[in-house]
Protein backbone atom coordinates (compact mmCIF):
# COMPACT_ATOMS: atom_id res chain seq x y z
CA UNK A 1 0.00 0.00 0.00
CA UNK A 2 1.11 3.55 -0.77
CA UNK A 3 2.56 5.14 2.44
CA UNK A 4 0.44 8.26 1.95
CA UNK A 5 -2.73 6.18 1.63
CA UNK A 6 -1.80 4.13 4.70
CA UNK A 7 -1.24 7.30 6.72
CA UNK A 8 -4.59 8.75 5.60
CA UNK A 9 -6.36 5.51 6.52
CA UNK A 10 -4.76 5.51 9.98
CA UNK A 11 -5.83 9.14 10.57
CA UNK A 12 -9.41 8.33 9.49
CA UNK A 13 -9.48 5.32 11.81
CA UNK A 14 -8.21 7.48 14.70
CA UNK A 15 -10.93 10.12 14.09
CA UNK A 16 -13.58 7.41 13.99
CA UNK A 17 -12.31 6.01 17.30
CA UNK A 18 -12.39 9.46 18.96
CA UNK A 19 -15.99 10.02 17.82
CA UNK A 20 -16.97 6.61 19.15
CA UNK A 21 -15.40 7.35 22.56
CA UNK A 22 -17.16 10.73 22.83
CA UNK A 23 -20.47 9.15 21.91
CA UNK A 24 -19.90 6.45 24.53
CA UNK A 25 -19.19 9.07 27.22
CA UNK A 26 -22.36 11.00 26.34
CA UNK A 27 -24.29 7.75 26.58
CA UNK A 28 -22.85 6.98 30.03
CA UNK A 29 -23.80 10.45 31.23
CA UNK A 30 -27.30 10.00 29.87
CA UNK A 31 -27.64 6.65 31.58
CA UNK A 32 -26.52 8.29 34.82
CA UNK A 33 -29.21 10.90 34.37
CA UNK A 34 -31.76 8.25 33.41
CA UNK A 35 -32.64 9.51 29.94
CA UNK A 36 -31.64 9.61 26.29
CA UNK A 37 -28.00 10.08 25.24
CA UNK A 38 -26.88 13.52 26.45
CA UNK A 39 -25.69 16.24 24.15
CA UNK A 40 -22.48 18.16 24.79
CA UNK A 41 -24.50 21.00 26.37
CA UNK A 42 -26.36 18.63 28.70
CA UNK A 43 -23.09 17.02 29.70
CA UNK A 44 -21.60 20.45 30.52
CA UNK A 45 -24.65 21.33 32.64
CA UNK A 46 -24.35 18.00 34.49
CA UNK A 47 -20.68 18.62 35.27
CA UNK A 48 -21.47 22.15 36.49
CA UNK A 49 -24.22 20.87 38.81
CA UNK A 50 -21.93 18.16 40.14
CA UNK A 51 -19.20 20.72 40.92
CA UNK A 52 -21.70 23.04 42.60
CA UNK A 53 -23.03 20.17 44.71
CA UNK A 54 -19.50 19.30 45.87
CA UNK A 55 -18.85 22.95 46.84
CA UNK A 56 -22.12 23.09 48.79
CA UNK A 57 -21.21 19.90 50.66
CA UNK A 58 -17.83 21.36 51.58
CA UNK A 59 -19.45 24.55 52.92
CA UNK A 60 -22.02 22.57 54.87
CA UNK A 61 -19.32 20.48 56.53
CA UNK A 62 -16.19 22.62 57.03
CA UNK A 63 -14.57 19.78 59.00
CA UNK A 64 -14.00 18.04 55.68
CA UNK A 65 -11.43 20.66 54.67
CA UNK A 66 -8.07 18.90 54.68
CA UNK A 67 -5.38 20.36 56.93
CA UNK A 68 -2.16 21.57 55.34
CA UNK A 69 1.26 21.19 56.94
CA UNK A 70 4.63 22.43 55.73
CA UNK A 71 8.14 21.49 56.83
CA UNK A 72 10.85 24.14 57.20
CA UNK A 73 14.52 23.46 57.86
CA UNK A 74 16.04 25.46 60.70
CA UNK A 75 19.12 25.95 58.55
CA UNK A 76 17.34 28.82 56.73
CA UNK A 77 17.88 30.84 59.93
CA UNK A 78 21.52 29.80 60.24
CA UNK A 79 22.24 31.58 56.96
CA UNK A 80 20.99 34.94 58.29
CA UNK A 81 23.83 37.39 58.95
CA UNK A 82 22.32 39.07 62.01
CA UNK A 83 19.64 38.64 64.67
CA UNK A 84 17.51 41.29 62.97
CA UNK A 85 17.62 39.54 59.59
CA UNK A 86 16.91 36.18 61.22
CA UNK A 87 13.86 37.67 62.95
CA UNK A 88 12.60 39.24 59.72
CA UNK A 89 13.01 35.92 57.89
CA UNK A 90 11.04 34.08 60.57
CA UNK A 91 8.34 36.76 60.30
CA UNK A 92 8.10 36.29 56.54
CA UNK A 93 7.64 32.54 56.99
CA UNK A 94 4.89 33.13 59.55
CA UNK A 95 3.15 35.71 57.36
CA UNK A 96 3.22 33.46 54.29
CA UNK A 97 1.80 30.57 56.32
CA UNK A 98 -1.03 32.79 57.59
CA UNK A 99 -1.87 34.11 54.11
CA UNK A 100 -2.03 30.63 52.57
CA UNK A 101 -3.95 29.17 55.54
CA UNK A 102 -1.27 26.69 56.59
CA UNK A 103 -2.47 24.72 59.62
CA UNK A 104 0.88 23.49 60.88
CA UNK A 105 4.55 24.34 60.46
CA UNK A 106 7.01 21.55 61.24
CA UNK A 107 10.51 22.86 61.95
CA UNK A 108 13.29 20.30 61.72
CA UNK A 109 16.94 20.68 62.62
CA UNK A 110 19.20 19.36 59.88
CA UNK A 111 22.46 20.60 61.38
CA UNK A 112 25.28 18.11 62.14
CA UNK A 113 25.08 19.02 65.84
CA UNK A 114 21.44 17.92 65.96
CA UNK A 115 22.27 14.61 64.28
CA UNK A 116 25.03 14.00 66.85
CA UNK A 117 22.77 14.78 69.77
CA UNK A 118 23.71 18.43 70.15
CA UNK A 119 25.25 20.06 73.20
CA UNK A 120 23.25 20.87 76.31
CA UNK A 121 25.54 23.76 77.19
CA UNK A 122 25.21 25.62 73.88
CA UNK A 123 25.16 29.36 74.49
CA UNK A 124 23.38 30.20 71.24
CA UNK A 125 20.08 28.71 70.07
CA UNK A 126 20.14 26.62 66.93
CA UNK A 127 18.33 27.98 63.90
CA UNK A 128 15.49 25.50 64.43
CA UNK A 129 14.97 26.47 68.08
CA UNK A 130 15.08 30.15 67.20
CA UNK A 131 12.51 29.71 64.42
CA UNK A 132 10.17 27.74 66.70
CA UNK A 133 10.43 30.44 69.37
CA UNK A 134 9.58 33.29 66.98
CA UNK A 135 6.77 31.35 65.24
CA UNK A 136 5.14 30.46 68.58
CA UNK A 137 5.39 34.09 69.66
CA UNK A 138 3.79 35.40 66.47
CA UNK A 139 1.04 32.76 66.51
CA UNK A 140 -0.03 33.89 69.98
CA UNK A 141 -2.54 36.80 70.12
CA UNK A 142 -0.89 40.08 71.11
CA UNK A 143 -2.76 40.40 74.42
CA UNK A 144 -1.32 37.08 75.64
CA UNK A 145 2.33 37.46 74.64
CA UNK A 146 3.60 39.18 77.77
CA UNK A 147 1.79 36.69 79.96
CA UNK A 148 2.99 33.56 78.16
CA UNK A 149 6.49 34.55 77.00
CA UNK A 150 9.18 35.72 79.42
CA UNK A 151 11.76 38.22 78.21
CA UNK A 152 14.39 36.72 75.92
CA UNK A 153 17.27 38.22 73.98
CA UNK A 154 16.01 36.72 70.72
CA UNK A 155 12.80 38.78 70.99
CA UNK A 156 14.79 41.99 70.53
CA UNK A 157 13.47 42.71 67.01
CA UNK A 158 10.00 41.11 67.08
CA UNK A 159 8.51 44.60 67.31
CA UNK A 160 9.56 45.14 63.69
CA UNK A 161 7.34 42.33 62.44
CA UNK A 162 3.86 43.08 61.06
CA UNK A 163 0.85 41.39 62.73
CA UNK A 164 -0.36 38.14 61.20
CA UNK A 165 -4.07 39.05 61.40
CA UNK A 166 -4.84 35.37 61.94
CA UNK A 167 -8.51 34.45 62.56
CA UNK A 168 -7.87 33.75 66.25
CA UNK A 169 -6.15 37.12 66.77
CA UNK A 170 -9.34 38.84 67.88
CA UNK A 171 -9.34 42.49 68.96
CA UNK A 172 -10.98 43.73 72.15
CA UNK A 173 -14.07 45.16 70.41
CA UNK A 174 -14.60 42.12 68.14
CA UNK A 175 -16.92 39.25 69.07
CA UNK A 176 -15.84 35.70 68.37
CA UNK A 177 -17.36 32.36 69.25
CA UNK A 178 -13.98 31.29 70.63
CA UNK A 179 -11.14 33.34 72.11
CA UNK A 180 -7.62 32.33 73.09
CA UNK A 181 -6.85 32.97 76.74
CA UNK A 182 -4.21 32.66 79.42
CA UNK A 183 -4.94 31.41 82.93
CA UNK A 184 -4.42 34.12 85.57
CA UNK A 185 -3.82 33.94 89.30
CA UNK A 186 -6.73 35.21 91.37
CA UNK A 187 -10.33 34.62 92.32
CA UNK A 188 -11.84 31.71 94.20
CA UNK A 189 -10.26 28.58 92.69
CA UNK A 190 -13.08 26.46 94.10
CA UNK A 191 -15.50 28.16 91.69
CA UNK A 192 -13.32 27.81 88.62
CA UNK A 193 -10.45 29.54 86.84
CA UNK A 194 -10.05 33.15 85.72
CA UNK A 195 -8.85 33.47 82.13
CA UNK A 196 -7.58 36.54 80.30
CA UNK A 197 -9.20 36.49 76.85
CA UNK A 198 -8.27 40.02 75.82
CA UNK A 199 -11.40 41.78 77.13
CA UNK A 200 -11.73 44.48 79.79
CA UNK A 201 -12.43 41.80 82.39
CA UNK A 202 -11.26 38.23 82.80
CA UNK A 203 -13.77 35.43 82.28
CA UNK A 204 -14.51 32.58 84.67
CA UNK A 205 -14.47 29.00 83.42
CA UNK A 206 -15.65 26.02 85.42
CA UNK A 207 -12.57 23.87 84.91
CA UNK A 208 -9.53 24.17 87.20
CA UNK A 209 -6.51 24.91 85.01
CA UNK A 210 -2.90 25.50 86.01
CA UNK A 211 -1.75 29.13 86.03
CA UNK A 212 0.09 30.27 82.90
CA UNK A 213 -1.51 27.71 80.62
CA UNK A 214 -3.05 28.76 77.32
CA UNK A 215 -6.64 27.69 76.73
CA UNK A 216 -9.40 28.19 74.16
CA UNK A 217 -12.60 29.56 75.67
CA UNK A 218 -16.08 29.17 74.15
CA UNK A 219 -17.67 32.62 74.56
CA UNK A 220 -21.29 31.52 74.17
CA UNK A 221 -23.96 33.39 72.23
CA UNK A 222 -23.92 36.72 74.10
CA UNK A 223 -22.33 39.23 71.72
CA UNK A 224 -22.34 42.07 74.27
CA UNK A 225 -18.69 42.66 75.21
CA UNK A 226 -19.55 45.32 77.80
CA UNK A 227 -17.80 44.59 81.13
CA UNK A 228 -20.05 42.75 83.54
CA UNK A 229 -22.33 41.36 80.82
UniProtKB/TrEMBL annotation:
Residues 12-26 have a biased composition (Basic residues). Residues 1-11 have a biased composition (Low complexity). Pfam families: Methyltrn_RNA_3 (PF02598). Signal peptide: none annotated. Transmembrane segments: none annotated. Residues 53-64 have a biased composition (Basic and acidic residues). It comes from the Eukaryota. SUPFAM superfamilies: alpha/beta knot. Residues 1-66 are annotated as: Disordered. PANTHER family: CLASS IV SAM-BINDING METHYLTRANSFERASE-RELATED (PTHR12150), METHYLTRANSFERASE C9ORF114-RELATED (PTHR12150:SF13). Belongs to the class IV-like SAM-binding methyltransferase superfamily. This is Uncharacterized protein. It comes from Aegilops tauschii subsp. strangulata.
Amino acid sequence: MNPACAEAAAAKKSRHKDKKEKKSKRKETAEHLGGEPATAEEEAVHKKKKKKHAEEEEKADPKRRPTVSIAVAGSVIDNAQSLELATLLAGQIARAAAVFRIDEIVVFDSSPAAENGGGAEEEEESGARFLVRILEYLETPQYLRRRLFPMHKNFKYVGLLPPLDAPHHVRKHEWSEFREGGVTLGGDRSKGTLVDVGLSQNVLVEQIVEQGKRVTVAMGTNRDLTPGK
